[in-house]
């Protein structure tokens, strides 16, 4: 008999298997080696400004990657569009440096790409991580012109826990708290995200997240979608677990119910290779992002 304690799954182990995404990859170590090398290559070959500080702690930085020509030249004298990217890692692992590789393809297309860094669990709470995402975006928006960026053409994208970050950025009171326009984000692309944190509580990740019931609800963006006209594309991999597909599908339904323009894009990838479609400037996610930024 199924029990609601495990969100429709017959046991804790069954729910764990849905969220232990690394275990679904036959050779996760090989994937890590590949992206670490590709990221080092990107930092060596793409013009960049690393570790720009947006807050007082050592973790509060972002990396900016620039096109080979100046953004103004690449866009025929106009300021460049930008991608603001938030990495995943279950709020507990990796830094911006492991994800530099997502920048190469879009800088080849004349984009500026920002890869955010942030503090991790258990050093800070999930709520503090969300605050850092917001502070990082606000800082970059305010300084966009210094990097040759058109602040009205910044697309946010994030992967896994970074998808959660994208959804939380979309629910930020930018005007009242940061002095930005009410809707400073041009478009949003959460990729294989986590939008309802409540099912994580009974899993092996629950103790690491250390969320109270009220925090699980407050930090679940699916439960607090706010109406806007900012277009979204919610992306997930058809080779991911059922729960990751459900998380994306249910979030898209919540966006649609709030009247937010939203498309759902399932791709034939697992949880990690899906980012190849962004890192390749001709990949399907990159092409969509370019179209959304320039609309």
From TrEMBL:
Keywords: Hydrolase. InterPro entries: AB_hydrolase_fold, BD-FAE-like_dom, GDXG_lipolytic_enzyme. Residues 77-250 form the BD-FAE-like domain. Pfam families: BD-FAE. GO terms for molecular function: hydrolase activity. PANTHER family: AB HYDROLASE SUPERFAMILY PROTEIN C4A8.06C, KYNURENINE FORMAMIDASE. This is Alpha/beta hydrolase.
């Amino acid at each position: 008999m199924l029990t609601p304690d495990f969100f429709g799954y017959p046991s804790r182990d069954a729910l764990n298997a849905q969220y232990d995404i690394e275990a679904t990859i036959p050779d996760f170590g090989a994937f890590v080696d590949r992206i670490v090398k590709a990221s080092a290559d990107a930092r060596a070959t793409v013009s960049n400004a690393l570790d720009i500080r947006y807050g007082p702690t050592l973790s509060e930085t972002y990396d900016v990657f620039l096109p080979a020509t100046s953004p103004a030249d690449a866009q025929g004298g106009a300021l460049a569009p930008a991608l603001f990217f938030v990495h995943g890692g279950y709020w507990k692992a990796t830094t911006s440096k492991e994800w530099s590789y997502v920048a190469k393809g879009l800088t080849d297309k004349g984009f500026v790409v920002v890869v955010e860094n942030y503090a991790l669990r258990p050093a800070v709470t999930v709520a503090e991580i969300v605050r850092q995402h917001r502070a990082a975006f606000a800082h970059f928006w305010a300084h966009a012109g210094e990097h040759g960026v058109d602040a009205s053409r910044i697309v946010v994208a994030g992967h896994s826990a970074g998808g959660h970050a994208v959804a939380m950025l979309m629910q930020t009171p930018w005007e009242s708290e940061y002095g930005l326009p009410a809707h400073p984000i041009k478009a949003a692309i959460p990729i294989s995200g986590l939008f309802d944190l409540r099912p994580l509580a009974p899993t092996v990740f629950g103790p690491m997240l250390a969320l109270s019931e009220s925090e699980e609800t407050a930090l679940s963006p699916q439960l607090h979608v706010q109406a806007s006209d900012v277009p979204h594309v919610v992306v997930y991999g058809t080779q991911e677990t059922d729960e990751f597909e459900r998380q994306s599908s249910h979030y898209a339904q919540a966006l649609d119910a709030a009247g937010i323009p939203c498309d759902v894009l399932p791709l034939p990838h697992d949880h990690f290779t899906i980012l190849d479609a962004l890192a390749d400037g001709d990949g399907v996610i990159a092409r969509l992002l370019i179209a959304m930024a320039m609309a």
